[in-house]
């Protein structure tokens, strides 16, 4: 009986030690997640206030964008002419 009590006591101490370690790890994870959440909230606020409107327009027949804060983000085929016509869509400029 004494041996069983000793075994249970040792097991309880091991569980208590493990619980303390897991609690410390959990507290560290909570701090890390709070810091990451704060950083994300800050970045979202910056993105909300720094928006230039996000206008989208097509520069038909052009291969470059004007110098008004727009940037060419894609070249290639997006759409095309009627099935019986040759050709493809032109470049698209988006403001950034």
Order of helices and strands: HEEE
pLDDT under 50 segments (min length 5)? none
| Anisotropy-based shape | elongated
The largest sheet, given as strand count, sense and whether it forms a barrel, is: 3 strands, antiparallel
Our Rg estimate from Cα atoms comes to: 31 Å
Proportion of β residues? 5-15%
Which structural class best describes the helix and strand composition? alpha+beta
**Number of DSSP strand runs:** 3
Helix content: 40-55%
What's the end-to-end separation, in Å?
Answer: 77 Å
Average pLDDT, rounded to a whole number, is 79
Number of helices: 1
**Strand order within the widest beta sheet:** 1-3-2
Q: State the domain count.
A: 2
Record the SSE blueprint.
Layout: H1 2-49, E1 56-58, E2 70-74, E3 92-95
Antiparallel strand pairs: 1-3, 2-3
Task: Give a written overview of the molecule.
Keywords: Coiled coil. Residues 5-39 form a coiled coil. Helix content is 50%, strand content 12%. It is α+β, with helices and mostly antiparallel strands and 96 residues long. Strands 1-3-2 form a three-stranded antiparallel β-sheet, with no helix packed on it. It is elongated. 1% of the residues are buried.
């Amino acid at each position: 009986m004494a041996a069983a009590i000793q075994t249970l006591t040792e097991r309880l101490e091991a569980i208590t030690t493990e619980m303390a370690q897991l609690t410390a790890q959990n507290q560290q994870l909570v701090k890390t997640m709070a810091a990451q959440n704060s950083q994300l909230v800050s970045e979202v606020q910056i993105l909300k206030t720094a928006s230039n409107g996000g206008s989208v327009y097509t520069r038909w027949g052009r291969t470059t964008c004007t110098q008004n804060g727009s940037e060419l983000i894609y070249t290639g085929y997006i759409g095309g002419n009627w099935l019986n016509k040759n050709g493809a869509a032109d470049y698209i400029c988006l403001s950034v």
